[in-house]
Write a structure and sequence with these properties.
Blueprint lengths: L6 H4 L9 E2 L4 H25 L9 E8 L3 E8 L2 H7 L3 H12 L6 E8 L7 H13 L4 H13 L5 E8 L8 E8 L9 E11 L2 E12 L2
Parallel strand pairs: 1-2, 3-4
Antiparallel strand pairs: 2-3, 5-6, 5-8, 7-8
Helix pairs in contact: 5-6
Protein name: Small ribosomal subunit protein uS3c
Subunit structure: Part of the 30S ribosomal subunit.
Keywords: Chloroplast, Plastid, Ribonucleoprotein, Ribosomal protein, RNA-binding, rRNA-binding
Length: 218
């Protein structure tokens, strides 16, 4: 039997780092974890509501949260930050104020910064959003996967694997389809592999998208 593990968790401390940086006592740990999840969901919903893109890609690669005694620093890594800035010029300030109210951070100041990713389609989250948008528009899953691989090639990656599972193309029986281009050494810890798992709701039901991108390493 194959033993499956999240490729990012497998490489923490070697080629990958944590997306949340803070310390808590064991009794407060679950509270901090839930707060992180709520913050991430709130930001994603806000960006989704306030940006209208033709491709359906909001472009959030990851959200890093750093907590100190008196400050919560949030860094949003985006592929296309212009979308948010142009659609709402004061969007960041508004988001910051809303988050402050939502989480009652009276004793802690909340600060949000946006960082731009140089090659957006070299990130699995942005690529998964692109594929999800294509599947919602009833584009053939093979076309969507091939187009995603073409976009990744422009981002100079060493390899990519895309997998879609569920009732693909509305077929009665769920199945798994995948495609690979280049090398994706999942068992090599020194290989930096970025991974994401994404859920897309189509008219036929829920599809799962998984993407592995081999960025650098041996």
């Amino acid at each position: 039997m194959g033993q499956k593990i999240n490729p990012i968790g497998f490489r923490l401390g070697t080629t990958q780092g944590h997306h949340s940086l803070w310390f808590a006592q064991p009794k407060n740990y679950s509270e901090g974890l839930q707060e992180d999840q709520k913050i991430r969901n709130y930001i994603k919903n806000y960006v989704q509501k306030n940006t209208k893109t033709s491709s359906g890609v909001e472009g959030i690669a990851r959200i890093e949260i750093q907590k100190r005694i008196d400050l919560i620093q949030i860094i949003i890594y985006m592929g296309f930050p212009k979308i948010l800035i142009e659609s709402r010029p004061r969007g960041i300030e508004e988001l910051q104020m809303n988050l402050q109210k939502e989480f009652n951070s009276v004793n802690r100041k909340l600060n949000i910064a946006i960082a731009r990713i140089e090659k957006p389609y070299g990130n699995p989250n942005i690529l998964a959003e692109f594929i999800a948008g294509q599947l919602k528009n009833r584009v053939s899953f093979r076309k969507a996967m091939k187009k995603a691989i073409e976009l990744t090639e422009q981002a100079d990656t060493k390899g990519i694997q895309v997998q879609i599972a569920g009732r693909i193309d509305g077929k009665e029986i769920a199945r798994v389809e995948w495609i690979r281009e280049g090398r994706v050494p999942l068992q090599t810890i020194r290989a930096k592999i970025d991974y994401c798992s994404y859920t897309v709701r189509t008219i036929y039901g829920v599809l799962g998208i998984k993407i592995w991108i081999f960025i650098e390493g041996e």
